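In this section we walk through a basic example: taking a raw amino acid sequence and producing a predicted 3D structure, encoded as discrete structure tokens. The instruction is simple. Fold the sequence below.
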Amino acid sequence: MTVTEQEKAAIWTPDQRLRVFVSSTLAELAEERAVVARAISALRLTPVLFELGARPHPPRELYRAYLAQSDVFIGLYWQRYGWIGPDMDVSGLEDEFRLSSSIPRLLYVKGPAPEREPRLTAMIAELQSEGTDSYRPFRTPRELARLVRDDLALLLSERFTAAAPAAARSSPSRTGDRPGSRSLPVTSTSLIGREQDIVDVATLLRSPEARLVTLTGPGGVGKTRLAIAVAHELDDRYPRGAVFVPLASVVDPALVLPRIAAAVGAATDGARQPLDAVAEHLAEAPTLLVLDNLEQVVGVAPDLDHLLARCAGLTILVTSRTALRLRAEREYPVGALTVPALPDRPDTDRLAALPAVRLFVDRAQAVRHDFALTPDNAMAVAEICRRLDGLPLAIELAAARSRLLAPGALLARLGSRLDALGPGPVDLPERQRTLRATVEWSVGLLADPEQSMLATLSVFVGGWTVEAATHVCGLPEDQTLDLLDALARHSLVPIAVTDAGPRFGMLEAVRELAAERLSARGDLADVQRRHAGYFGGLVENADWPAQRQGEWAERLRTEEENLRVAIRWFLTHDIAPLPHLFRILWLFWQMRGRMPEARAWIGELRSRADALDDRARAELLFTSAVTAVEVGDDDSALAAVDGLRRLQGRIDDPYLESAAQLALSWILPLVDDVDGALRTASTALDGFRRQHEPFQAFAALTVGMAEMALGRDEAARAHLTEVDELGGQFDNDWLRSTARTQLAALAVGSGRLDEARDLLVRSVDAREDTEVSTLSLTFALVAAARLALARADARRAATALGAADGLRRQAGLRAWPSTRRSEAELISRVRQASAAEDYAEAFSAGGELGHREAVALVRGGQG
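The resulting token sequence is shown next.
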């Protein structure tokens, strides 16, 4: 036989049996590729796997030829997007997927995938959005091998059946086998961000111990979509298929069993109870029953329990805003697509990988085909998702507004979440066509006392404890607990378990509706007064302790939003407690970088200081002085000191007297009186030591820094070492960090450069649950600049100085008074050691660094 030129050019696979092309990245999925090849071979099929360098042809030409000769396509995906060849816009992995559209495709995605590359994430989202393919999640090679064997066998049997005569395909025995499989809804949009949930719920349902699983969560979180996806995943495990029973329109629990009977095809008549009819029909046959929207008919729960007892092969998957409270029930809370804390300047690819952002983009493109995530709109999209608590329904409604509004304009209109998003698609249930309708549906299921409690709790911002709820609601603790439990069961009040005990919260959309109802009640003013009183007392009754200061500061951080509400209430209704509260809070503001906000409150209070008594004025002047120093408001700081001096002798309080001396010591360097600053700081230190006050550590730090400014290095080192030790005793990271930065500067001055570097690294090694304060970090950066200059690295020194300047400008701070002169001298030395252009460039680059990048620079990285 003559071989044609075309046949000569063809690239043939090893044999000509039914061929299954396997597409994946090579290195990260090597083991998975091997088990898939074995699974294909076990079915007497031929695996076709591209291996780089396996044949004497260019890679792109090789895999395309192999794919053109294949009958089935298997795609394996995990975290890597793959290599992009010359003259290609997509990787070989994506190119293979696009070229396979004409043959059957089986796709598998490995999880978890915490480092999945953004382009692979987008590709997976695209293949789902097309609606023609679905993928199966897996975790291990062994699980993948089983899935591939089963799916290939099913695919081949379906292809064989499709080729059979129509009469044979529609025989009664065939259609009677799986009456429920066609009841699963076919979704028209992709399910995004639920890959792990699908795996977890499906795994739970496969275990023999979990025969009743309830997906709980607030309205609009995506329980129904998740249930449908899980049912499709498990459908082929059941001879009858998965049976989907929608119950949103059913309001009488007695009608649930008849609806189930109709769905499974159980014959009912007047002589038999629906429960008996369903139980006899299902008998021992394995069946997955999906009951959707059961929250308004949870009274049927005992019947479902009886049904499970009588039908050994029955498994039930429920979606409901409240759990059924059956012993056989396994609850699976469906969480929102939360947007995590982001770094200073996250890149667009990182934002694009967030499930909430992916969902927004997908739905926005449905109404505006040219919508794309860009560096200009990515942060606005992420903030929209965050403001909407990651609630999928709210995100979908917001994305639909992209037809008219750019993300920035939409974000500006989110003041009222309930009404800003407008109506959703008409194919949504009526209760979900607006966010308001969804929330009202949920709240309408509550009893009157529960609705009243929900409205009262809307006064909290950022969550609350049982103790806080009991005080603000004015109810006995047992009754408060019962009502909180009821609201949690309805998925309106999520609970977080913390080391300090349970903490409750509320989605902002729910809180907005609840606040509307509270504002219409006659006791609104009383509720707000009790809220302010509780959080004012929380601060006032727990002044800075001598130990566990980190834990105390963390509690203040947890309650920060509630404290803001309380401060605003006091400014409006009763300013008397505020000077004392501010005197306690200023250290927290310092550690958390809240000085500009705090200064605004202090300024508002100072304008009304005539209404305060002498003690309150003294506390206010102290707080005004020490905060003014940090933000560089030198005039206000000096004016506050003058006010404190005028009050001397009128305040019989040793603590306030020592505090006034400490404030004075911070401010005297502004008028070049460092000697006076050392004397007053030493007086404050002696006073605090006599009183055993934890403020002695801050006084010792001030003494040490004044001694440094005066060149008394050994005395300074002794005091700063004491501060480092006290910081450990008090559990105060701010003290330890700041002391180590100053000790590092002393070590540089004495030529101990390795010791300085070690101290700097330790100064920014905060615990996981804390962050180095901006003030401490700027101290560290200046010390790092000294170290770099000592090592003849003027460029690094300029970068560190620029970073300190940039962080201060962002936080509204200035250099500490006692360090300003030495820092100015350091800048001059770095300038002299650098070319003018090099210094300016490095200083400017440092000013662009964010907090985390600056920490990396101090640790020795490049920032």
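Looking at the output, two observations stand out. The first strand starts at residue 19 and ends at 23. Residues 40 and 47 are 6 Å apart (CA to CA). In the next section we compare this with other chains.
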